[in-house]
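Thread: quick sanity check before group meeting

JM: Hey all, I'm pulling together slides for Thursday and realized we never actually wrote out the predicted structure for the chain we discussed last week. Dropping the sequence here so it's in one place. If anyone has concerns about the input, flag it before I start.
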Amino acid sequence: MEQKLHLVFGGELVDPTKNVFKDIEALHVVGIFSEYEKAFDAWKAEAQKTVDNAHMRYFITDLGGLLDEGAAGRAAQDLG
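JM (edit): ok, ran it. Output follows.
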């Protein structure tokens, strides 16, 4: 059974027209959510808090593919 996981995170961008973070160490990880709707609500709440800063961006990303056992096994083999 495939499990859906959605990561919500954000940070300050170098340039608001590009998705390049100014400081990776300062990324704000909001959380991981099993339902997209909950992830969207969390994303929206954080994005609204920073609406006055054009360099701040929050994102939702799907983590489901990272849990694919076949892919994880292949990645482990590549490292070994």
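AS: nice. The helical segments are 36-49, 69-79. The beta strands are 6-12, 28-33, 56-62.
JM: adding both to the slides.
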